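We close this part of the discussion by returning to an individual protein. In the encoding step, the backbone of a single protein was reduced to a row of integers, each denoting a local shape. The sequence in question and its structure tokens are set out directly beneath this paragraph.
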Amino acid sequence: MQQNLIIYFDKLNSVELRIKPKNPGGNIPVDDLNQVRILKSGKPTFVYKDFSKKKMLLSDYIGTKKVILTDTLNNFKWKILKEKKKIGNLNCRKAETAFRGRLYEAWYAEEVPIQNGPWKFCGLPGLIVMIKDTESDFLYELTGIDLKARFENKIIDIPLAYEKDKAVTYKEFRILYNKKIEDYIRLSRVEQATHEGITGKINIHMPEKQEKF
């Protein structure tokens, strides 16, 4: 499923938010980066990075419930390769990393000296322009960048909808997530008899997680 994301950043922090472009046709042209609408229904999906403290806070699902969890920015051991190519107007270099059960190939632009990227990715000596896993299940592509954009600095923060929520660690999140899967598996195996004596089976699907462990 394709999603549109926008990242606001300064020297110390960044926040990634899901957005809805004015043109529902798909990618967001550079000229339209200031004409997007952040999805605010319920609790927004976000990834907040604090580069000075080397940590991040982000939202995720446990079943249908959205929770906030904390993780470290020191997750990635990058291998920088010699291969280079041009993506759009940017000269990019290839790098690889393994992260929680998946192998990733990234292309980053040294000419944009920002050690950031989509989702949890960061730590390369340049902005990550494209990254995908080797199983081709997940792909992130930069569709526009404006290094002179003006915005209110207060937007680079955790969304207010989460201000009363207690963050869990990634380890705690995995325990809760796996328990929810076990609950769903048990529920899906239960055959329920209706008042007419008809039996049926409940099948519940949990979407694949990007992190396998």
